[in-house]
Protein backbone atom coordinates (compact mmCIF):
# COMPACT_ATOMS: atom_id res chain seq x y z
CA UNK A 1 0.00 0.00 0.00
CA UNK A 2 1.34 3.42 -0.93
CA UNK A 3 1.66 6.30 1.49
CA UNK A 4 -1.19 8.03 -0.31
CA UNK A 5 -3.45 4.99 0.09
CA UNK A 6 -2.59 4.66 3.76
CA UNK A 7 -3.51 8.30 4.34
CA UNK A 8 -6.75 8.05 2.40
CA UNK A 9 -7.91 4.73 3.82
CA UNK A 10 -9.29 6.12 7.08
CA UNK A 11 -11.19 8.78 5.17
CA UNK A 12 -12.65 6.16 2.87
CA UNK A 13 -13.77 4.11 5.83
CA UNK A 14 -15.45 7.09 7.46
CA UNK A 15 -17.04 8.38 4.30
CA UNK A 16 -18.04 5.06 2.75
CA UNK A 17 -18.48 2.72 5.69
CA UNK A 18 -20.01 4.70 8.52
CA UNK A 19 -23.43 5.49 7.08
CA UNK A 20 -24.00 2.09 5.45
CA UNK A 21 -23.00 0.47 8.75
CA UNK A 22 -25.41 2.68 10.66
CA UNK A 23 -28.24 1.93 8.24
CA UNK A 24 -27.65 -1.82 8.46
CA UNK A 25 -27.48 -1.73 12.24
CA UNK A 26 -30.57 0.49 12.42
CA UNK A 27 -32.52 -1.84 10.15
CA UNK A 28 -31.51 -4.82 12.27
CA UNK A 29 -32.47 -3.06 15.52
CA UNK A 30 -35.77 -1.92 14.02
CA UNK A 31 -36.60 -5.48 13.02
CA UNK A 32 -35.77 -6.76 16.50
CA UNK A 33 -37.84 -4.02 18.16
CA UNK A 34 -40.91 -4.66 16.01
CA UNK A 35 -40.79 -8.43 16.41
CA UNK A 36 -40.33 -8.11 20.16
CA UNK A 37 -43.29 -5.74 20.46
CA UNK A 38 -45.80 -7.64 18.37
CA UNK A 39 -44.88 -10.97 19.96
CA UNK A 40 -45.39 -9.60 23.48
CA UNK A 41 -49.06 -9.91 24.46
CA UNK A 42 -48.67 -7.54 27.40
CA UNK A 43 -47.29 -4.84 25.12
CA UNK A 44 -50.12 -5.32 22.66
CA UNK A 45 -52.83 -5.15 25.34
CA UNK A 46 -51.54 -2.38 27.61
CA UNK A 47 -49.81 -0.19 25.04
CA UNK A 48 -51.57 -0.73 21.71
CA UNK A 49 -55.11 -1.74 22.67
CA UNK A 50 -55.66 0.27 25.85
CA UNK A 51 -56.70 3.44 23.95
CA UNK A 52 -58.85 1.25 21.66
CA UNK A 53 -60.64 -0.17 24.70
CA UNK A 54 -61.17 3.35 26.08
CA UNK A 55 -62.55 4.46 22.72
CA UNK A 56 -65.08 1.63 22.56
CA UNK A 57 -66.20 1.95 26.20
CA UNK A 58 -66.47 5.73 26.43
CA UNK A 59 -67.73 6.07 22.88
CA UNK A 60 -70.69 3.88 23.83
CA UNK A 61 -71.35 5.92 27.00
CA UNK A 62 -71.00 9.51 25.78
CA UNK A 63 -73.89 11.14 23.94
CA UNK A 64 -75.32 14.57 23.14
CA UNK A 65 -73.92 17.83 21.82
CA UNK A 66 -71.11 19.86 23.35
CA UNK A 67 -72.61 22.89 25.06
CA UNK A 68 -72.47 25.96 22.84
CA UNK A 69 -71.92 23.95 19.64
CA UNK A 70 -73.65 21.55 17.27
CA UNK A 71 -70.81 19.04 17.57
CA UNK A 72 -71.41 15.55 18.92
CA UNK A 73 -69.48 15.06 22.17
CA UNK A 74 -68.25 11.67 20.96
CA UNK A 75 -66.45 13.35 18.06
CA UNK A 76 -64.60 15.62 20.49
CA UNK A 77 -63.67 12.65 22.66
CA UNK A 78 -62.48 10.58 19.73
CA UNK A 79 -60.24 13.37 18.46
CA UNK A 80 -58.70 13.49 21.94
CA UNK A 81 -58.29 9.74 22.27
CA UNK A 82 -56.09 9.73 19.15
CA UNK A 83 -53.71 12.04 21.04
CA UNK A 84 -53.88 9.72 24.04
CA UNK A 85 -53.04 6.81 21.73
CA UNK A 86 -49.92 8.60 20.53
CA UNK A 87 -48.81 9.19 24.11
CA UNK A 88 -49.58 5.59 25.05
CA UNK A 89 -47.29 4.09 22.43
CA UNK A 90 -44.65 6.80 22.10
CA UNK A 91 -44.26 7.92 25.72
CA UNK A 92 -45.61 5.36 28.20
CA UNK A 93 -44.72 2.21 26.31
CA UNK A 94 -41.26 3.44 25.34
CA UNK A 95 -40.29 4.72 28.81
CA UNK A 96 -41.34 1.45 30.47
CA UNK A 97 -39.59 -0.62 27.80
CA UNK A 98 -36.30 1.25 28.21
CA UNK A 99 -36.50 0.89 32.00
CA UNK A 100 -36.88 -2.87 31.60
CA UNK A 101 -33.96 -3.06 29.17
CA UNK A 102 -31.80 -1.03 31.52
CA UNK A 103 -32.72 -3.18 34.51
CA UNK A 104 -31.99 -6.44 32.70
CA UNK A 105 -28.64 -5.16 31.44
CA UNK A 106 -29.57 -5.23 27.74
CA UNK A 107 -28.58 -1.60 27.20
CA UNK A 108 -25.22 -2.16 28.85
CA UNK A 109 -24.56 -5.23 26.71
CA UNK A 110 -25.54 -3.38 23.52
CA UNK A 111 -23.09 -0.62 24.47
CA UNK A 112 -20.27 -3.18 24.44
CA UNK A 113 -21.06 -4.36 20.91
CA UNK A 114 -19.84 -2.76 17.66
CA UNK A 115 -23.38 -1.47 17.02
CA UNK A 116 -23.40 2.31 16.41
CA UNK A 117 -25.22 3.82 19.37
CA UNK A 118 -27.61 5.91 17.23
CA UNK A 119 -28.96 2.62 15.84
CA UNK A 120 -30.52 1.86 19.24
CA UNK A 121 -32.53 5.07 19.20
CA UNK A 122 -33.44 4.74 15.52
CA UNK A 123 -34.77 1.24 16.21
CA UNK A 124 -36.90 2.59 19.06
CA UNK A 125 -38.20 5.44 16.91
CA UNK A 126 -39.10 3.10 14.02
CA UNK A 127 -41.01 0.85 16.42
CA UNK A 128 -42.87 3.80 17.90
CA UNK A 129 -43.76 5.24 14.49
CA UNK A 130 -45.05 1.90 13.17
CA UNK A 131 -47.07 1.09 16.29
CA UNK A 132 -48.47 4.63 16.47
CA UNK A 133 -49.63 4.45 12.85
CA UNK A 134 -51.21 1.03 13.47
CA UNK A 135 -52.98 2.28 16.57
CA UNK A 136 -54.18 5.47 14.86
CA UNK A 137 -55.60 3.43 11.99
CA UNK A 138 -57.40 1.16 14.48
CA UNK A 139 -58.82 4.11 16.41
CA UNK A 140 -59.96 5.97 13.30
CA UNK A 141 -61.44 2.83 11.77
CA UNK A 142 -63.56 2.17 14.86
CA UNK A 143 -64.44 5.86 15.31
CA UNK A 144 -65.60 6.25 11.70
CA UNK A 145 -67.46 2.96 11.30
CA UNK A 146 -68.99 2.61 14.77
CA UNK A 147 -69.44 6.17 15.99
CA UNK A 148 -69.74 8.33 12.90
CA UNK A 149 -66.55 10.37 13.21
CA UNK A 150 -66.07 12.07 9.81
CA UNK A 151 -62.93 11.56 7.77
CA UNK A 152 -60.82 14.68 7.16
CA UNK A 153 -62.77 16.60 4.54
CA UNK A 154 -59.96 18.45 2.73
CA UNK A 155 -56.38 17.90 1.62
CA UNK A 156 -55.30 20.55 4.14
CA UNK A 157 -56.87 18.54 6.98
CA UNK A 158 -55.16 15.35 5.82
CA UNK A 159 -51.86 17.23 5.78
CA UNK A 160 -52.54 18.55 9.29
CA UNK A 161 -53.29 15.01 10.47
CA UNK A 162 -49.98 13.81 9.00
CA UNK A 163 -47.74 16.47 10.53
CA UNK A 164 -49.44 16.57 13.94
CA UNK A 165 -49.24 12.76 14.15
CA UNK A 166 -45.59 12.70 13.03
CA UNK A 167 -44.38 15.58 15.17
CA UNK A 168 -46.43 14.42 18.16
CA UNK A 169 -45.02 10.90 17.88
CA UNK A 170 -41.40 12.10 17.72
CA UNK A 171 -41.99 14.53 20.59
CA UNK A 172 -43.56 11.92 22.87
CA UNK A 173 -40.87 9.37 21.98
CA UNK A 174 -38.02 11.73 22.88
CA UNK A 175 -39.84 12.73 26.08
CA UNK A 176 -40.30 9.05 26.92
CA UNK A 177 -36.61 8.27 26.43
CA UNK A 178 -35.64 11.24 28.59
CA UNK A 179 -38.22 10.39 31.27
CA UNK A 180 -36.89 6.83 31.51
CA UNK A 181 -33.90 8.28 33.39
CA UNK A 182 -36.25 8.98 36.31
CA UNK A 183 -37.24 5.30 36.61
CA UNK A 184 -34.98 3.49 39.10
CA UNK A 185 -35.92 -0.06 38.09
CA UNK A 186 -38.37 -2.06 36.00
CA UNK A 187 -40.57 -2.94 38.99
CA UNK A 188 -41.45 0.71 39.55
CA UNK A 189 -41.71 1.66 35.88
CA UNK A 190 -45.48 1.39 35.52
CA UNK A 191 -46.07 3.16 38.84
CA UNK A 192 -43.92 6.11 37.75
CA UNK A 193 -45.13 6.38 34.15
CA UNK A 194 -48.87 5.57 34.34
CA UNK A 195 -49.94 8.41 36.70
CA UNK A 196 -48.32 10.98 34.39
CA UNK A 197 -50.07 9.42 31.40
CA UNK A 198 -53.48 9.38 33.11
CA UNK A 199 -53.29 12.87 34.63
CA UNK A 200 -52.27 14.48 31.34
CA UNK A 201 -55.23 12.83 29.61
CA UNK A 202 -57.70 14.23 32.14
CA UNK A 203 -56.35 17.80 32.07
CA UNK A 204 -55.74 17.91 28.30
CA UNK A 205 -59.32 17.58 27.09
CA UNK A 206 -59.37 13.87 26.24
CA UNK A 207 -62.22 12.79 28.52
CA UNK A 208 -63.87 16.18 28.90
CA UNK A 209 -64.19 19.24 26.60
CA UNK A 210 -61.06 21.30 27.16
CA UNK A 211 -62.87 24.64 27.32
CA UNK A 212 -65.01 23.38 30.22
CA UNK A 213 -62.03 22.54 32.41
CA UNK A 214 -60.97 24.94 35.20
CA UNK A 215 -58.64 27.67 34.00
CA UNK A 216 -55.75 26.43 36.14
CA UNK A 217 -56.05 23.00 34.52
CA UNK A 218 -56.02 24.56 31.07
CA UNK A 219 -52.92 26.57 31.91
CA UNK A 220 -51.17 23.50 33.33
CA UNK A 221 -52.10 21.34 30.35
CA UNK A 222 -50.79 24.00 27.96
CA UNK A 223 -47.28 23.27 29.26
CA UNK A 224 -47.40 19.70 27.92
CA UNK A 225 -47.71 18.26 24.41
CA UNK A 226 -50.88 16.15 24.85
CA UNK A 227 -53.12 19.22 24.98
CA UNK A 228 -51.64 20.54 21.75
CA UNK A 229 -51.88 17.19 19.97
CA UNK A 230 -55.54 16.89 20.98
CA UNK A 231 -56.17 20.41 19.71
CA UNK A 232 -54.45 19.59 16.43
CA UNK A 233 -56.59 16.49 15.96
CA UNK A 234 -59.73 18.47 16.77
CA UNK A 235 -58.81 20.81 13.91
CA UNK A 236 -58.69 17.77 11.63
CA UNK A 237 -61.97 16.09 12.56
CA UNK A 238 -64.25 18.80 13.96
CA UNK A 239 -66.03 21.58 12.06
CA UNK A 240 -64.43 25.03 12.04
CA UNK A 241 -67.46 26.29 13.94
CA UNK A 242 -66.15 24.44 17.00
CA UNK A 243 -63.48 27.12 17.39
CA UNK A 244 -66.07 29.33 19.11
CA UNK A 245 -65.48 27.30 22.29
CA UNK A 246 -61.71 26.87 21.87
CA UNK A 247 -59.97 29.00 24.55
CA UNK A 248 -58.00 30.94 21.91
CA UNK A 249 -60.91 31.18 19.46
CA UNK A 250 -58.98 29.26 16.78
CA UNK A 251 -57.01 26.09 16.10
CA UNK A 252 -53.58 27.76 16.58
CA UNK A 253 -51.79 25.37 14.23
CA UNK A 254 -48.63 27.46 14.25
CA UNK A 255 -48.46 27.41 18.04
CA UNK A 256 -49.10 23.65 18.05
CA UNK A 257 -46.09 23.13 15.77
CA UNK A 258 -43.97 25.48 17.90
CA UNK A 259 -44.81 23.81 21.23
CA UNK A 260 -44.35 20.28 19.90
CA UNK A 261 -41.09 21.31 18.24
CA UNK A 262 -39.75 22.83 21.45
CA UNK A 263 -40.68 19.68 23.36
CA UNK A 264 -38.89 17.57 20.74
CA UNK A 265 -35.72 19.66 21.06
CA UNK A 266 -35.96 19.58 24.85
CA UNK A 267 -36.45 15.81 24.87
CA UNK A 268 -33.44 15.37 22.58
CA UNK A 269 -31.23 17.52 24.82
CA UNK A 270 -32.39 15.76 27.99
CA UNK A 271 -31.78 12.37 26.38
CA UNK A 272 -28.24 13.41 25.43
CA UNK A 273 -27.60 14.60 28.99
CA UNK A 274 -29.24 11.80 31.00
CA UNK A 275 -29.24 8.59 28.97
CA UNK A 276 -26.78 6.11 30.47
CA UNK A 277 -25.12 3.21 28.66
CA UNK A 278 -22.48 1.96 31.07
CA UNK A 279 -24.26 2.40 34.37
CA UNK A 280 -26.97 -0.18 33.72
CA UNK A 281 -26.79 -3.27 35.89
CA UNK A 282 -25.85 -6.54 34.21
CA UNK A 283 -27.42 -9.56 35.86
Automatic annotation (TrEMBL):
<dbReference type="Pfam" id="PF01061">
    <property type="entry name" value="ABC2_membrane"/>
</dbReference>
<protein>
    <recommendedName>
        <fullName>Transport permease protein</fullName>
    </recommendedName>
</protein>
<keyword id="KW-1003">Cell membrane</keyword>
<feature type="transmembrane region" description="Helical">
    <location>
        <begin position="44"/>
        <end position="62"/>
    </location>
</feature>
<feature type="transmembrane region" description="Helical">
    <location>
        <begin position="256"/>
        <end position="277"/>
    </location>
</feature>
<keyword id="KW-0046">Antibiotic resistance</keyword>
<comment type="similarity">
    <text>Belongs to the ABC-2 integral membrane protein family.</text>
</comment>
<feature type="transmembrane region" description="Helical">
    <location>
        <begin position="189"/>
        <end position="210"/>
    </location>
</feature>
<feature type="transmembrane region" description="Helical">
    <location>
        <begin position="121"/>
        <end position="149"/>
    </location>
</feature>
<dbReference type="InterPro" id="IPR051784">
    <property type="entry name" value="Nod_factor_ABC_transporter"/>
</dbReference>
<dbReference type="InterPro" id="IPR013525">
    <property type="entry name" value="ABC2_TM"/>
</dbReference>
<feature type="transmembrane region" description="Helical">
    <location>
        <begin position="161"/>
        <end position="182"/>
    </location>
</feature>
<dbReference type="InterPro" id="IPR047817">
    <property type="entry name" value="ABC2_TM_bact-type"/>
</dbReference>
<keyword id="KW-1133">Transmembrane helix</keyword>
<keyword id="KW-0812">Transmembrane</keyword>
<dbReference type="InterPro" id="IPR000412">
    <property type="entry name" value="ABC_2_transport"/>
</dbReference>
<keyword id="KW-0813">Transport</keyword>
<feature type="transmembrane region" description="Helical">
    <location>
        <begin position="77"/>
        <end position="100"/>
    </location>
</feature>
<keyword id="KW-0472">Membrane</keyword>
<feature type="domain" description="ABC transmembrane type-2">
    <location>
        <begin position="42"/>
        <end position="278"/>
    </location>
</feature>
Amino acid sequence: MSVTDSVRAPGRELGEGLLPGLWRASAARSSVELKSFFRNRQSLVFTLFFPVILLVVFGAIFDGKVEGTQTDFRQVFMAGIVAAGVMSTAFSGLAINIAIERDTGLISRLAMTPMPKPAYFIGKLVKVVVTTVVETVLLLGIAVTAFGLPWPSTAHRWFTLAWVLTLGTVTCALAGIAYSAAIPNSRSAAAIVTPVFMVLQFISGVFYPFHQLPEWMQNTAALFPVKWMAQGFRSVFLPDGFTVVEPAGGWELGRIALVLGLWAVGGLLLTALTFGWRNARVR
